[in-house]
Amino acid sequence: MHRWIAIICAAILAATAAGEAAAASRIKDIVDVEGVRENQLIGYGLVVGLQGTGDGLNNAPFTRQSLQAMLERLGVNVRDANMRTANTAAVMVTAKLPPFATQGSRIDVSVSALGDSKSLQGGTLLVTPLLGADGEVYAIAQGPLAIGGFSAEAEAASITRGVPTSGRIASGAVVEREIDFRLASMSTVRLSLRNPDFTTARRIALAVNDLIGSPVAEPTDPSTVRLTLPPRFNGNIVDLLTDIEQLFVEPDLPAKVVIDESTGIIVMGQDVRVSTVAVAQGNLTVLVTEEPQVSQPAPFSDGETVEVPRSQVQVQDGVEQRLAVVRTGITLRELVDGLNALGLGPRDLISILQSIKAAGALQADIEVM
């Protein structure tokens, strides 16, 4: 008997721990470290080698000017020439410079057509400097493009799949300049919560302090937790971040209902609660059907064939919809089941949720996208 009781208790504890672990998240998944971020790069370049699908030089003067400037740098004078090539396209090149990227490392780049090019398939990007927000060159991009779409056309038909005017170059840029940021020498660092919340910030600080055994973490606001390097880490903040990023914390978020009216999408958080309220919904629908008929004249008469309109109008006022009572303190699942039981679509659910909020019975914020 004692053995079975011990087994049952162990199973209950294991299930409880599994439930808590499933609801918790690692600190590294819910915060960003101060200074550890990507930087956006942008550049303007030319793609050559297209099969007649490039920019029309008469319609894209910037492509003509760029092509002339490039050829002049290579010792070819084409100022007075009438160029008609359609194998070149002006493009914008973008990339993300990862944090702590070292000189000589490679990053991916995205290429998008700027003019009236129909497709970049088969093209090669020429040497393109990539600039940061400060105007400095941080990477150089070049290489053949990989296009996810294609376009083909004939005299009477055409087909396009995907977007043939944009593509990527895997490892297509070489980092030329590093961003100076010395994280290891910092004595304090801030953790920025991706979803700011007072409770989550305090839980992170408590978890860190429990691990270290001293008050090294302090929540300063809903989105920031400040870490102070303790003496036993030998002046290296990276060691401290490595130890705490695997800690599990259960995030706490405010009750919120997110509505996208353009697509009819409704997302409700698990803490959404509703006070006792009665809900009824009835749509007034007017259906007009046109079935025109043709009236033929009698044989051997001077009449004309005419179209006679025939219209049918039906009105549905939704009288079959009844009043439903939503009890107070119900869970999210019960709320969804109750609203679905009314046989409503997403549009009607949006109107009902907004009406419940206006009545003060919805204990959550509604955010309309």
From TrEMBL:
Q: What is its main location?
A: other
Q: Which InterPro entries match?
A: Flag_FlgI (IPR001782)
Signal peptide range in chain numbering:
1-23
Write down any Gene Ontology CC term.
Answer: bacterial-type flagellum basal body, distal rod, P ring
Keywords from the named record: Bacterial flagellum, Cell projection, Cilium, Flagellum, Periplasm, Signal
* A GO BP entry: bacterial-type flagellum-dependent cell motility
Q: Name one Pfam family in it.
A: FlgI
Where found? Bacterial flagellum basal body
A GO molecular function held by the record: structural molecule activity
Question: What is this protein's function?
Answer: Assembles around the rod to form the L-ring and probably protects the motor/basal body from shearing forces during rotation.
Quaternary structure and partners: The basal body constitutes a major portion of the flagellar organelle and consists of four rings (L,P,S, and M) mounted on a central rod.
Which protein family is named in the record?
Answer: Belongs to the FlgI family.
PANTHER family assigned: FLAGELLAR P-RING PERIPLASMIC PROTEIN FLGI (PTHR30381), FLAGELLAR P-RING PROTEIN (PTHR30381:SF0)
Designated name of the protein: Flagellar P-ring protein
